[in-house]
């Protein structure tokens, strides 16, 4: 890979992912802390020998710090459960290193989306319920529960990754570099509750379709998160059909538990949806949450809902292995990471057995 311009942002991300200070990094590679600071600010560029030492200390390949073909960005994720800035930077670094590695690998295939994506030329409504229904029409999602939300997202050209975030309290993230049309949703490999994950995926989709295209009108973080959450509920649990399910029940906790399997989201989310739609008043909603906590369902509800699996990146890796003849070393070179680091960030593609052959309109670029 030819050397491009040195990327201060890639250096910041790699250091953040390891959770080390500028002083520690400087000591590891035999330079001063001000030199590290100037590299990260873009005021100076490391010489070749220093670049090699820097890459080794950051557990990346030199090309991972100088490949400017793929744009870095700041992933959007909820950091409410992250207690320190160091841990927040670690999550951000792991997310971006994994996304950049996947993006470099995916440059070797052509992906043909089967569904359109809403754009600034035809944006969705600002009303989240209406926006959710518009998207269901655009993507031709049948009435009733969404059978596989990730399949629809990937059919529209977005990439969903399962990533080792390095922190259990962050479940998902959304990213789209400004100069890149590719959209990315990352899911924490530690998140294994299928019902919760479906709502999480829909939440990140809410960010992707509501907040990515107009930098001047994106609401503040609290309002943005509320919009994405309410969009997720509206997309997965349409008001008209859900009302028919709920209206003739007593709206007890067990009623929402029974509806959980049908809609594929948690009973807690269904109770919230009923409250939002005015079918459960504030007192009844509070009592539902008391019942939920009393019965030990606050963190885990009874009954399993299968975790939806992303396919496109796994299919890409398998396609390149099968038709391109790539080895682990080839993937590492393309990713800009040593293979063990690549496997640690994206273990489902690089540690597990190969997946079944591609079925997503992927074509190897010759």
Helix-strand pattern: HHHHHHEHHEEEHHHHHHHHHHE
Number of strands: 5
Which percent range fits the helix content?
40-55%
For the sheet with most strands, the description reads: 3 strands, mixed
Beta content comes to 5-15%
User: Which ranges are low-confidence, i.e. pLDDT below 50, for 5 or more consecutive residues?
Assistant: 353-359
How big is the Rg? Answer: 22 Å
Provide a descriptive summary of the structure in words.
By secondary structure, this protein is mostly helical. It has helices at residues 8-18, 22-29, 33-41, 48-58, 62-66, 85-106, 128-138, 149-155, 194-210, 221-236, 239-246, 253-263, 267-276, 282-294, 312-324, 328-335, 339-345, 347-350; strands at 109-111, 159-163, 172-175, 184-188, 362-364. Among the domains are: 1-69, 434 Repressor (Amino-terminal Domain); 239-294, no CATH class. Helix 12 crosses helix 13 and helix 13 (267-276) packs antiparallel against helix 14 (282-294). A hairpin with an 8-residue loop joins strand 3 (172-175) and strand 4 (184-188). Helix content is 52%, strand content 5%. A three-stranded mixed beta sheet has the order 2-4-3, with helices on both faces.
Annotate the secondary structure layout.
Layout: H1 8-18, H2 22-29, H3 33-41, H4 48-58, H5 62-66, H6 85-106, E1 109-111, H7 128-138, H8 149-155, E2 159-163, E3 172-175, E4 184-188, H9 194-210, H10 221-236, H11 239-246, H12 253-263, H13 267-276, H14 282-294, H15 312-324, H16 328-335, H17 339-345, H18 347-350, E5 362-364
Parallel strand pairs: 2-4
Antiparallel strand pairs: 1-5, 3-4
Helix pairs in contact: 1-6, 2-3, 6-16, 7-10, 9-10, 12-13, 13-14
